[in-house]
Design brief:
Layout (H helix, E strand, L loop, with lengths): L2 H16 L12 H6 L10 E8 L5 E3 L7 E3 L3 H12 L4 E7 L16 H12 L4 E6 L21 H18 L3 E4 L6 H11 L8 E6 L6 H7 L19 H12 L4 E5 L5 H10 L4 E5 L1 H12 L5 H15 L3 E4 L2 H10 L1
Parallel strand pairs: 1-3, 1-4, 1-10, 4-5, 5-6, 7-8, 8-9, 9-10
Antiparallel strand pairs: 2-3
Helix pairs in contact: 4-5, 5-6
Length: 343
């Protein structure tokens, strides 16, 4: 812009100011005004707190890569955590289990006395109003760490695996789970689980589908926390290519057609565009998973004094809501809710 053009523009704005136009800063003058016109809120009931449950007693085990998050035994340690989550105003948890025994078929995942099933019964006994969501996958339960049943060549067999996912979901709901959340990214997993639930008398149980789950590098800390790192290869033959968004629309559309009640995008931060695209195309409740790597990066930067953790967390969670998520699964959920309650 030339000096003459700048002068002309300045004069134009001066005139507009005199006629009362083009002054959006008027609504930013005080905290009260800013609150009045806030477009996007994140409140505790929007949040889901993930929890890791480990077999044993009296266990509250630190996870080195996820400061502030613990592996808990399904006794008073879990009771304490659930009580704190509920007191913060969060009414939903997502349960992951760490079994003592693993095998090629992930048998502990559908054991009616498995670690997740024990945890669900304990939670519902003590906090019946908490919505308990159970992850339906096999990676934590198989001795090879993949999300399904392998053939002799080490390939995850899709149609065999989805039958097992159905068995897992039924076992979890039998224990008291309110929602099942299939995350294996097997084709037709939602349909197989819907049929399994319906045929076992659980036709009213909702399915939260991990519809757009990417083969992301942001899962590293979770795999340490859950003991779910593949013993060979990767998961790129079933989880999605991070470069793709049209594929996410197709995957989500299939899940909707097959009976998903809630759809999900995972991870969240690097996929805000996908959240927005899914929100604009589908009307179902939309969840987004603010995953372990996103959590750990913020924790590490905060520990080094490079960022203000609370302010960054606020920005991150609001960005996910702003993109279109109705539900945010986040390891920050409890801390954020406690701060929100004090504000």
């Amino acid at each position: 812009m030339t000096r003459a053009e700048f002068s002309y523009a300045s004069d134009s704005f001066k005139g507009d100011d005199e006629s009362g136009n083009l002054r959006p800063r008027r609504l930013r003058l005080s905290a009260s005004l800013r609150r009045l016109v806030t477009e996007t809120d994140v409140i505790p009931r929007n949040l889901v707190m993930p929890i890791f449950v480990k077999e044993g007693q009296g266990i509250r085990e630190k996870i080195d890569s996820m400061p502030g998050i613990f592996r808990l035994s399904p006794d008073e340690m879990l009771d304490r955590e659930i009580s704190e989550i509920s007191s913060a105003g969060i009414n939903s948890v997502l349960v992951f289990g760490l079994p003592n025994r693993k095998d090629a078929f992930g048998s502990e995942a559908f054991n009616d006395n498995g670690i997740v099933q024990q945890a669900v019964r304990r939670i519902k006994q003590n906090e019946p109003d908490i919505v308990v969501i159970c992850d339906v996958c096999m990676c934590e339960y198989t001795d090879h760490g993949h999300c399904g049943i392998l053939n002799q060549g080490g390939y995850v067999q899709n149609d065999v695996t989805i039958e097992y996912l159905g068995k897992i979901a039924v076992s979890q709901v039998r224990a008291g789970a309110d929602i099942v959340a299939p995350s294996a990214m097997m084709d037709n997993q939602v349909l197989a689980i819907r049929r399994a639930l319906d045929s076992n008398g659980f036709g009213e149980t909702p399915i939260m589908a991990y519809s757009s789950k990417y083969a992301s590098a942001f899962y590293g800390p979770f795999r340490e926390a859950a003991g779910a790192t593949p013993s060979f290869g990767d998961r790129k033959s079933y989880q999605m290519d991070p470069s793709n968004v049209r594929e996410a629309m197709r995957e989500t559309g299939i899940d909707v057609e097959q009976g998903a009640d809630i759809i999900m995008v995972k991870p969240a931060l690097a996929y805000l565009d996908v959240i927005r695209a899914v929100r604009e195309k589908f009307d179902l409740p939309l969840a987004a998973y603010n995953v372990s790597g996103e959590y750990s990066m913020i924790k590490a930067a905060s520990a080094n004094g490079w960022i203000n953790e609370e302010k960054v967390v606020d920005e991150v969670l609001h960005s996910i809501r702003r993109a279109g998520a109705d539900i945010i699964i986040s390891y920050f959920a409890k801390d954020y809710a406690n701060r929100w309650n004090k504000s």
